[in-house]
Amino acid sequence: MSTERTALVVIDAQKAFEEWEAAGRRRNNPHAMDRIADLLAAFRAAGAPIFHIRHQSLAPSSSFAPGASGGEVMDKGREEPGEVVIVKRVNSAFIGTDLEWRLRDGGVSRLVICGVTTNHCVETTTRMAGNLGFEAWLVRDAAWTFDRVGPDGDYHLAEDIHAMTLANLSDEFARIVWTEEVVAAMAGLR
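The structure assignment produced for this chain is given below.
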């Protein structure tokens, strides 16, 4: 692993998700934000590139609308000076942004991906990363999702949605890893 060739991509670590949880929505991986903080610390210590992705909706009623409190970044996910922040308006961090160009211009070939929600923006970005030829590592304990009701009215637990998303992405689109694996690999680069 090389610090120049490996970048951390933190997807949508925004307060809307804290607000959803405070309003009673149930999620999995309650310590995922702590794991994201661990990844940020490891990448910063290694001097490796970090890309913060923020979602901004054009729908005025969205939790992610410009000016809405939900669009703000979670405290543990704040960027530091020099770290790139990219704003997206759809699920993939590659659509309508310069993320791909920045990665290729910087010689990055491996993406360590984490964030919210596993089955939406994290999954879509991870799939596209694999399709674009990047080596994607999805950090399973540094991502989370929420319970959902399906089109037939069936209730799906966040844990099941998360697990199925990981199963769908495993091998073909991404390597599924744990935070401790990534932190150990990054520590070896210092």
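Interim note for the steering committee: The first helix runs from residue 15 to 22. The helical segments are 15-22, 32-46, 99-105, 118-131, 158-169, 179-187.
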